[in-house]
Amino acid sequence: MKAVGLKIVRRLIPDWGTTYGPPGDGPFPAVMVFHGSEGAWSGWSHRNAVLLAAHGFLAFPFGYSKGGNAWNAGSIEEIPLDRSLDALSAFRAFPPTGDRLAFYGVSRGAEHALLLASLMVRDGLKGVPDAIAVHSPPDVVCGAFDARRFRDNGDPGWQTWDPAKRAWSWRGSSDDLLPTRPIEIERFDGPLFLSHGTADRVWSVEMTRRLVARLERHGRRPDVHYYEGSDHLPGSAGENEHHDHLVSFLDRHLRA
Hints:
This protein is an alpha/beta fold.
C-alpha cells in the first residue's frame, strides 16, 4: 500500500515572509505566530507554524527582532509594534487567509501578542484578532533583551530582561510601554488561551496567575492551562498536552 505523505505548502507574503499551510487555495483559518527572545532566525516560530499547518491552519511566523543571524538571536529593543500591525494587515489581505485569525505567541512573543491586541482595541483599530493564544506570558511590559549580553540563570549579572531599556514602541513612542506597566489585555473581549509551566525558571508562573486574576476581575473567563512541573518550555509530555489544548482552542474559535 502506498504511503500517503503529509503535505505542507509554503506560500510567500510579498515583502513580509513565508507562511505554512495545507494544500489548496483556501481560504484557511489563520494564525500569526510571534517568536520569543530566541529571535526570528532560530527557527522555533517556523517550527510552531509547521505544527499548526499540519492541523489545517495557515500560519505566518512573523520575524520582528532586530539584527541577528543564524548564530545570534539579535535584540528586542524599541521594536515598533506599528510594523507588526502592518504585517497583520498584509496577512489578512493574503488570498489564502480566511476571515478568522488568531495570534499565538510564546514568552516574549506572548507579550508581543497581548500588547498588540490591547493597543489595537484601546485605539479602536480594525482587524483585531478573533482569538489569542499565549504560552508563558508576562502580565506586565518587560524591558529590552539583547542576546549579545545574555547570561545563563545563576551567572553574575543574570537577568531575563533589561529594566533600564524599552522593548517596544507604538506610534513612534515607548512612553506608554514602560517596563512593569500592566498589559491591558482585559480590553480584549475575545477568546483568550493562557498556559504556563509551574516550574518555569525564566518567567514565573505567578505572572500568568496574576494575569488570570486580573482578567477574572474584569469579567473575562480565559481558557487556562498549567503544566505541572514544566519549565519555561514544556518537555515532550507537556508539549503534547499543550498542543492538544492549543489546537482544540483554535479549532473552536477559528472554524466556527
